[in-house]
Amino acid sequence: MKGGRPKQTNSNTSELARREQRLAYTLLLPTFIILALIAFYPLGQVFYTSFTDKTFASGEKTHFIGFDNYKRLLSITIKELPPIIDEKTGKQKIDPRTGEKLYERAIRVLPRKPIRYRELTQFSLFGKRYVIGATDRDFIQAIWNTISFTVISVLAETILGLGIALVMNSNFKGRGIMRATMLVPWAVITVVSARIWEFMLAPSRIGFFNMIFEKLGIGDGNMVFLSNKSIALPTLIIVDVWKTTPFMALLILAGLQLIPKSIYEAAKVDGASPIRQFFSITLPLLKPSLAVALVFRTLDALRVFDIFQVLLAQKTYSMASYNYYQLIGNRAMGLASAIGVIIFIIIFGFAVLYMKLLGVDTE
Question: What is the rounded CA–CA span in Å between residue 328 and residue 312?
Fold first, then answer.
């Protein structure tokens, strides 16, 4: 009797678990069917189109070209630049104005057949000069712009959002009004807020920032924020941080609300300082909410389109805005589909990395 009962109980438990599993699959079946129709099929179509030379809104015959679109987008080469030798002295020539050593032009070194490579950037290593060439330097630069934008903006938004959430989580008069007010930048449509910033960043004294800088004695009131490549991307990051920090603060605040107050009261009794409470209680218990906020915001930032398109147009691309340019501007649907697949793979990689590092799948 004693030995038989546990077996029967285990058998009943496993049967119940199998029935619950079958019920779960039955309930999820309609969702899987809908996903297959509205998500997986279009995604599969994009993958297939990326291997063709299909032209958007055209009756031209489509041909299967394999990985040619991906080769055009991602092909990179590194070549050493030969030094320019002075025939009289036999030594490398020096620029008299800058004092820098002179090298052959990149256009003479980079391959032009069967595929033409264009200069992406140059760097020096162990006393030699190298040039990096790309078949599509705009797209490679777009990948760099997007990842740089994502890393810096998400980091700044997380730090600022955490600070704002900690303040909003404390008790003070007018807390409700402040919580509603902080959401105003996030509530404004991105295109509208981008236009507002475009007016404020105007490259003359008409622009708000140029007017302020001139009164403070910084510059002559004609600072170019969006056409200068060295400050265009930092400017976009500032705009995005202003708009999206409230979203991060809201998600983090929701996590702070779930932490029981009794834990802090016990910590105070034990003599823990506010800083010790933050690192020993708040951060560990906030980790699941913080991880979810980071995942959502990072994946959203990697798909950034509207801010780049409105403020920079075709001067500087993100991956999404370059995809739009190829599809609408060049009507290269096959190439645009390949860009979409690359964006998907990068986002998927970031999502998996986040889940592994932050433990989103186990929390």
Answer: 17
Task: Provide the 3-class DSSP secondary structure of residue 128.
Answer: strand
Residue 168 corresponds to which tokens in the numbers above?
């909003």
* Residue 3 falls inside a structural domain: no
Q: Are residues 165 and 270 in the same domain?
A: yes
- Report d(CA 275, CA 295) in Å as an integer: 26
Cα separation, 176 vs 168, in Å, equals 9
Per DSSP, helices labelled H in 81-228 are 106-109, 137-168, 175-182, 184-187, 190-200, 208-215
**Pair 80, 181 in one domain:** no
Number of domains in the chain: 2
What are 32's two structure tokens?
Answer: 């899987």
Reading the block at residue 187, the tokens are 């509530």
Contact 221, 201 (CB under 8 A): no
Q: Which amino acid is at 197?
A: W
Asked if residue 215 belongs to a domain, the reply is no
Q: Which residues contact 49 (CB under 8 A, 6 or more apart)?
A: 333, 334, 337
pLDDT in tens, 121-164: 888 888 888 999 999 999 999 999 999 999 999 999 999 999 99
Q: Which residue has the tokens 């002075």?
A: 86
Verify that 101 and 250 share a domain, yes or no: no
> How many other C-beta atoms are found inside a 10 Å radius of the C-beta of residue 227?
11
Q: Are residues 251 and 328 in the same domain?
A: yes
Shared domain check, 156 and 114: no
- Any residues with CB less than 8 A from the CB of 170 and at least 6 apart, and which? none
Say how far apart CA 68 and CA 113 lie, in whole Å: 15
Joined tokens for residue 288: 């699941």
Lookup: tokens for 279: 């690192």
* CA dist., res. 197 & res. 306, Å (int): 13
Q: What is the pLDDT of residues 292-335, one digit of tens each?
A: 888 888 888 999 998 998 888 888 899 999 999 999 988 899 99
State whether 145 and 277 are in the same domain.
yes
